[in-house]
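Aim 2, interim progress: modelling of the 2-acetamido-2-deoxy-beta-D-glucopyranose-bound target.
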Amino acid sequence: MLAFLYFVQMLINLPKMLVLSWNNMIFPPSDSSQHFRISTVSPSLWMTSSDINANYRTLNLSICHVSIQVATWRIDDVIVDGTSCSRILKIDKLGGQRVTVDILKAHGEIQRISEVVKSERKFWMVSIGDSFSSGQGNPDKKSENGKKAEWMDEPCYRSTKAFPYLISRHTPNSALSFLSCSGSTVENSIISKNGQLEHLQRLITAHGAPPDLLFLTIGGNDIGFTDVISLIQRDSKITDKFDMRFFFVSHQIDRVAWKLKEMNVSRVVLLDYYDATKNEKGEVDGSCGAFGRVSLPNLQLADRKILQRLNSLLRRKAAEHRWIAVDTTDIFRTRGICSSRSLIRSRNESMMLQGNEYGSFHPNEEAHRLIAERIVKTLEL
Ligand SMILES: *[C@@H]1O[C@H](CO)[C@@H](O)[C@H](O)[C@H]1NC(C)=O
Ligand SMILES: *[C@@H]1O[C@H](CO)[C@@H](O)[C@H](O)[C@H]1NC(C)=O
Ligand SMILES: *[C@@H]1O[C@H](CO)[C@@H](O)[C@H](O)[C@H]1NC(C)=O
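Predicted structure of the complex, ligand included:
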C-alpha cells in the first residue's frame, strides 16, 4: 500500500520533475553573470535635433539568453508594457537608469534581474558636400517596370550605397548625419542660409558637442566640373580662364574651414576627386564616347589642368587646415569611364538605374565600397 502511494505520488509529480530538469537543462542554476545583453539599434541617422534626443537613448536590451518568459519590465521601478525577452528601451543620457526584469521560472517562480543601464556615447559622423558623397548614380533601389528609383533622399540623391553610409554601418555604435546633397556648391548649399553647415550647427546644439568625424567633398561644382568638357571643346585656351575659378575655390574652401573651426569640428576628412578619364592601361581615354566628341588632347588637358589641379589644391588646403586628406587616386588609376573595369557610371547605366542621366560620371557602388574601405583603413575606424 505504501509502495502504491509512493508510486501515485511520483506520477503526480512527474510533470513537475520533468519541467524542473528541463528547466535546469536550458537554464543552468543561475550565477552572478546574468546581465542584460545590450546592443544599439544601428545605424542611427541623426538628421534632426529630435533624432539626436531620441536616438541617443535607444538601446536594445535582451535577457533572452537567460529566459524567454518575462513577466515584467521596469524602468526606475515603473512598470513598462511588454513581456518579450528583448526590447528597445529609451535610456536617459544622464547617469543611466535602473532596468529591472522579472523572469518566470518553473513553478511560477520568479527571478529578478536588475541593473543600471547607461546610454553609451555614440561616435558621431557627419557628411557634408556634393554628389560625390551623397552617392549620386547609385539609387537604393533601381527604377524598374515603370517604377521610380528609390533614394534615401531623392532631391539630394542621397544613397545608402554611398561611402558615408557604408562607413557608419561598419562602425559600431555610430550615428550619421548625412547632409551631402547633389549639386552643392559652397555658396549655394554649404555655407548658405539654411545650408548644410547651419543644419549641422543645430545638430551640434542638440547634441551638446561637435561631431567626432566629418567627411567633406567640396570644390567640384565650385570649379564647374560639369561645364569643363563643353568649355574646352569650344576653346582649348580655357584653362587660363580657370585661374580665376581656382582662386575663387581656394577662398571658398577657406570659408568652410573657418566655419568648421568656429563650430569646434576638429577631425575633418577631405576626399579628393576621382579621375574618370583613365582606361585600363592608365591612359586618358575617351574612345568609348562618354565624353562626347571632345578630342583626346583636350581631354588630357582637362584632366591635367582642371582635375589634377583641383586635387592638388584640395591637398594643399587639407594640410593648411589640418584636415585628413584621403587619396583615392590609385583606386581610379585604371578604372575610368572608358576602362574595361570602369568604376564610373555611364550615361546609359544612369538612365537604366535611376531614369535620368544625372548619375553619369559618378562613382558606382563598387567605387563607394572601395572608398569606404580606404577611409576606414586610413582612420583605423
Ligand atoms: C534585440 O536583441 C535581441 C538579442 O540579440 C535580438 O534577438 C532582437 O532581434 C533585437 N531587436 C532589435 C529590434 O534589434
Ligand atoms: C567651441 O569651443 C569653445 C571653447 O571650448 C566654446 O567657447 C565655444 O562656445 C564652442 N563653439 C561652439 C559653436 O560650440
Ligand atoms: C547607350 O545606349 C544607346 C541606346 O540604347 C546605344 O545606342 C549606345 O551604344 C549605348 N552606349 C554605350 C556606351 O553603351
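The mean pLDDT is 87. Residues 37, 39, 41, 60, 62, 64, 86, 88 surround 2-acetamido-2-deoxy-beta-D-glucopyranose (ligand 1) (CB under 6 Å).
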